[in-house]
Amino acid sequence: MLSLVSFLVHSQPAQRFFSKEQLITSGIYYYPEQWPQSQWERDIKKIAEMGFEFVHLAEFAWFKMEPQEGRFEFAWLDEVVQLCIKYNLKVVMCTPSATTPTWMRLKYPETFIMDGQYIRAENGTRGLGSITNQKYRYFVNRIVTTLAKRYGNNKNVIGWQIDNEPPAITDYSPSSQTAFRQWLRKKYKTIDALNAAWGTAFWSQWFNGFEEVVIPNTNLVGWWGNNPHALLDLKRYLADSQAEFLDMQAGILKQYCAEEQFTTTNYTAISTGADALRTQKLDFATYTAYPNGGSDNIGAEGFRLGNSKPVLFAAAYYQQLGGVSGVMEMQPGPVNWGSYNPLLLPGTVRMWLYHSFAAGGRIACSYRFRQVLYSAEQYHAGTIKTDGVTPSPGGEEYVQFNKEMKQLRALYKPAAALPPKLAARKTAILWNLENFWSIDRQRQTYQWDTWNYPIRFLEIARSFGAPVDIINEKTDLSAYNIVIVPAYEMVDSLLVQKWKDYVDRGGHLVVTCRTGVKDRFGHFWEDETAAPVAQLVGARITATDMLAAHHKGDILMNDRHYQWNDWADLLEPAAGTEVLAVYDNQFYKGNAAVVQRKIGKGTVWYIGVSTDDAKLETALLKKVYTKAGATTESYPPGLLVYWRDGFYIGVNYSSDNYPVQLPANATTIIGESVIKPAGVLVWKED
Asked: Given its phi and psi angles, is residue 363 left (phi above 0), alpha (psi -120 to 50 degrees) or beta?
């Protein structure tokens, strides 16, 4: 079991797999098994002509590689690899564990998951293999070993993607029940320890032995009756199991493959189950990004421009594993699963690619090359239209992006260093999935947006033009001038002491509501609310209020009023703690809402309220950056500006033109100083 405090962030960076001078390597998903063999060479040649540099192969092709149990056929895949070599294209090879062949489901039904009604899944889609089932793992081990032996020393294969969008899906099958009990035995050692952690004295849930424990099932108990501590451990178990399953495959690849070949997987940009930081053998993590699935987003054209959050979050989060990341699966146009699937504003796909690049991506790959003619994803766009030869609008934008990357590579200077004004703004946001799991189970108000609450602080810091990392508890805080801890519900004394030490040495720490309310088991402290954090910030939380959506609470800070209605901690400051904002209506008018306290050489702030428009949080953080000696920009929502490898890159997700005031020493490389919706601007400063 990988506990929270033992998260492994690889000490050996994965930078060695990528040339810095290359900046970013572009690729494309291709499924030769879905097309006539007579078209393969035409397609591979077209991929090369469009400027792609690698081809992504075989992730869903288990049926083609092992059409019958134990009979392997790779001549077709060898032919495609040879075509890639012929046209100077590298290969990212995939393990096919996401899509099991039909013969496995028919002969070995136990290899499939069981749902909350204890019904076996059927063959026909992806991600339904029972990763704890030993028979399934045997088949996965065998196909991965066979693949690794065949392509592990092929110099044209640069790396491996393991599985596809690891789901960490709940599996109620007998093999998963057994694995869950084993996981619990390893964690708790005794049944008494488990009973204490889960609070089983409540509602007669008591266990006499581990053999009595079953996976908590919300389908049969109901939301109200479910034990939040058991469900938290279920999430931990599922994430640990998924990580171990990926590591099993990575271990096989590392045994047989050349050291120059990397191992990765493509997590979903916003993953609520699988946890990349629990893996120990992946070299780095990539992500999939589908910014546009029929949501309104920013302004009149927002529904055509997409949501910046998937790339904004994923690019920062996944770099924790191995020090690099990138987008392995980028939306090339309209999709087939959105609430509605509009045409994209011209330039949007290129903007998304630049966003991933600007945020540090080393890989830019799209799903998929050709729009499929049949089956579940007929309406999912490709970079090539249904005729098989004509680039789609998204395909044309990939071509443009690939050409422009060559232009930037020619201007790359390895000695470029982060400008001092940006270094002064360097910010970290502490976040982990366990707190998401815990809070989302008991949100207390339907208005609480568990996922997007931390992202709001990422957006605010980015609007200031600050470089932002998303970090974990093992990260050294001394590298950051500002550290933000949003809604970090579960803590222990060591973590709070780490925060105090950071402030004491001169750091600037921002802590928000819903932080430190529980211990690692998800229990309240047998003390005042959020007692460890209350001691840190110098203010007691005497009560918490939540309003109906049509009610508006009022807050006064620096003679300006702000509104809230979803969460408000009432604070009682200790001596020496400064009150920065107070509630200005309700029956507790005058109570503190935001406080500040000096500790040693630094300062800690506590934001006890969550506002819908984030204006209060933005104003407060402006003060924090000023206190930290950092200047700030004032970029509007949707306008994102990054610095990378000597280049400034701006992208515009908003529906309005934005004029960038470039300094006198700036040289425009790509775009114009007025960034239009879906526009990109790249410049350098001498």
From this structure: beta
